[in-house]
Amino acid sequence: MSEEQNNISKERIIAVLQSIYDYEIPIDIYELGLIYDIKIIDKVDVKIIMTLTSPNCPVANYLLVEVKRKIQDLGGVRNVEIDLTFDPPWNPSMLSEAARLKLDTL
Questions:
Q1: Contacts of 102 (CB under 8 A, 6+ apart)
Q2: Considering the entire predicted model, what is its pTM?
Q3: In whole angstroms, what is the distance from residue 17 CA to residue 75 CA?
Q4: In what order do the strands lie in the sheet with 35-41?
Q5: Fewest CB within a 10 Å sphere: which of 1, 46, 67, 100?
Q6: Distances from the Cα of 89 to the Cαs of 14, 33, 51, 85, in angstroms?
Q7: What is the spatial distance between Cα 77 and Cα 62, in angstroms, rounded to a whole number?
Q8: Backbone φ and ψ of 13, nearest 5°
Q9: pLDDT band, very low/low/confident/very high, at 6 (cuts 50, 70, 90)
Q10: Is pLDDT at 58 greater than 70 in this prediction?
Q11: Are 90 and 22 in contact (CB under 8 A)?
Q12: From CA 3, how far away is CA 1, in angstroms rounded?
């Protein structure tokens, strides 16, 4: 395993998450506030705790598969576990400042 592959960081994971968009809202899932926690375990396993804007989100399966696939594609990641939670439920106050600004211009 190369140095690059063994260098899993929250910053690299966040960059990947910022490339995944909810189709209903033109903002990435990280800026939407859907990611509650990112854990790197033993330098090779990643655990994501996330939510959706609604329990009935029509793109839920797509988002979960995309998060797992894109993080798994980072070099050096052995396993990706996603815990989907609705506690606390998502609400607009979880939007980042950048996301709020973008929504205000739409």
A1: 26, 27, 31
A2: 0.89
A3: 15
A4: 35-41, 45-50, 79-84
A5: 1
A6: 21, 11, 7, 8
A7: 20
A8: -65, -45
A9: low
A10: yes
A11: no
A12: 7
Q: Report d(CA 63, CA 95) in Å as an integer.
A: 17
* DSSP tag of 104: H
- C-alpha 65/C-alpha 34 separation (Å) is 15
DSSP symbol at 67: H
Q: Are 54 and 46 contacting, i.e. CB atoms less than 8 angstroms apart? A: no
Q: Determine contact, residues 51/86, Cβ cutoff 8 Å.
A: yes
Other CB atoms closer than 10 Å to residue 27's CB: what's the count? 21
Whether the bond between 89 and the residue before it is cis, its omega within 30 degrees of 0, is no
Rounded CA separation 99/1 (Å): 37
Distance CA 5, CA 62 (A): 26
Q: How far is CA 95 from CA 2, 33, 55, 101, in A?
A: 36, 5, 17, 10
Please tell me the number of Cα atoms within 13 Å of 63 on its side-chain side: 30
CA-to-CA distance for 15 and 34, rounded, in angstroms?
A: 14
